[in-house]
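Page 47, continued from p. 46.
Same chain as before, 264 aa.
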Amino acid sequence: MKQRILTAVIAAAFFIPIVILGGLPFTILVYAMATVALYEILKMKGLSLFSVPGLISLLALFVFLLPTKWANQLMDLTSYTKIDLALITILILLTYIVVVKNRFNFDDAAFSILGALYIGIGFFYFVETRMAGIEYVIFALGIVWTTDSGAYFIGKKFGKNKLWPDISPNKTIEGFFGGIITAIIFALIFQFISPFPISIIALIIVTIIASIFGQIGDLVESALKRQYQVKDSGDILPGHGGILDRFDSLLFVLPLLHFLHFVG
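Result:
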């Protein structure tokens, strides 16, 4: 527990000022975290980031991460869109399968690209959300943290019915709904302190959906770890695991807030 607290304090002291600062420093931080996350997910399958296919996957990740402003500038200069560049990296990766005579196979390529897309899209929307305003980042983080805390404490106190034991044996249905309730309470308090241009009913609906998908994001990473038989995605954060362990819910919540037109 002491190690978890110490890691959290040090991480917060480094992370929070850069989030507040925003701009290029924040974008660089997001690129760094996404790179570590890609390393972690490739390692689960026994693939190395420091290899030809790993570096091609990293290139695809960097393309997915391109902020809209940068992508538009790139298109003005080269006439290539993000989709064009992403497809080029996929074609290169598929060509590599032939070059190495299936030592790196189609399944590996599919896993690498989907992993880069999963991580890239989530962290891309982290940058886009910060550009929209720090209040949206605080809201998203608050939804994730209060959902996790509510699910844990309410599940521990009242949990009797397992939510999805094959994937995450400790999660309960009671904790699932407890997480949603605590997220709603947070959202209402936040709306009182820093109101969004949205009705209370709409805010509650957005919060419920975001809380549900945040918990789904956590289950997705749990399913990955169970499939590849690893306890944590990494060990860069002592006591907390890896970047994916800490950001799995956020990778679902941030895109969702944009898809619901809550941000942007």
